[in-house]
Write a structure and sequence with these properties.
single chain, 13 helices, mainly alpha, about 280 residues
């Protein structure tokens, strides 16, 4: 696959992910987040059942690492969406971009550019404005805090994907990642929430659509990141909060105040730093 083709795939995947914030928010009106996640990802892994007998021990290990990162991040993000809005969640999640170089350094001793620390400071100040009472948001809430932790976990996931996707078969890694995420979510549900699942038309179609999309979008991410580096992929993911904000506006009528838009703008500005480390992104 060419780099241009891989970048095109990641752009398409990111647009879909941006819409998922609003779709998942709709589902969470009728189901608890961890139980819904467990059902969604176990359904997706069941669709890949024929793959499991061919997965090697090394691929099980790599997929389990990806699954651990993704399960933790997705559980935190979905739980956060209960009390925050799709646009805020997407902007806060995008903080994972400047954290990717730091995660690369912690994992593989790949030194980040000095400006990375400045970018993180800018992003955190942007998060303060986005979630501050001055912006009319009522201040940082529990959902925002959970999403902030999720962003740091997702940074580790992006780095892990680039590491393992180039060594093992993406479909095998995906099958294990989905299984680990589904099992972890289902087991955590009775411990961390009051399980709730209203089986109605909204939940059914959301569950089915998101289960199928998990195979398509995360599978394409694994394929594309065999060619595109972690830092480059993280920059492309900056499109996600813009799509999420637009979708949330169309569905929920969500509007951000002036200070919140300034905060979101600072977060996006901070994300431009990885372009210096990925000079040939386009």
């Amino acid at each position: 696959m060419t780099k241009r083709g891989a970048i095109g795939i990641l752009i398409g995947v990111t647009i879909l992910w941006g819409t998922f914030f609003t779709v998942i928010k709709m589902a969470l009106f009728h189901a608890s987040p961890l139980l819904f996640m467990g059902v969604r990802f176990l359904t997706a892994s069941a669709l890949l059942a024929p793959v499991f007998p061919r997965i090697t021990r090394e691929e099980w290990h790599g997929g389990a690492v990806l699954g651990a990162f993704f399960a933790a991040g997705a559980m935190l993000q979905s739980s956060g969406l209960v009390t925050t809005t799709p646009a805020r969640s997407a902007f806060i999640t995008s903080i994972c971009t400047p954290l990717v170089p730091l995660a690369s350094y912690l994992a593989f001793r790949v030194r980040p550019r000095p400006f990375t620390l400045v970018s993180i400071a800018i992003a955190m100040f942007g998060t303060y404005l986005l979630t501050s009472a001055k912006g009319g948001s009522g201040g940082l809430n529990h959902g925002d805090f959970l999403t902030l932790i999720a962003a740091s976990v997702f940074a580790g996931h992006v780095v892990a994907v680039s590491h393992y996707a180039s060594r093992f078969r993406p479909l095998h890694l995906l099958a294990v990642q989905l299984l680990i995420t589904g099992v972890a979510s289902l087991l955590s549900s009775p411990l961390l929430e009051t399980p709730r699942f209203e089986f109605n038309a909204i939940v059914f179609w959301t569950w089915l659509g998101l289960s199928l999309s998990a195979i398509v979008t995360f599978g394409l991410q694994l394929v594309a990141q065999r060619t595109v580096s972690a830092s480059r992929a993280a920059v492309i993911f900056l499109l996600e909060p813009l799509v999420a904000s637009f979708t949330s506006y169309l569905v929920f009528g969500e509007r951000l105040g002036a200070w919140q838009w300034i905060g979101g703008g600072l977060i996006l500005a901070a994300m431009l730093e990885p372009l210096w480390e990925a000079a040939e992104i386009l």
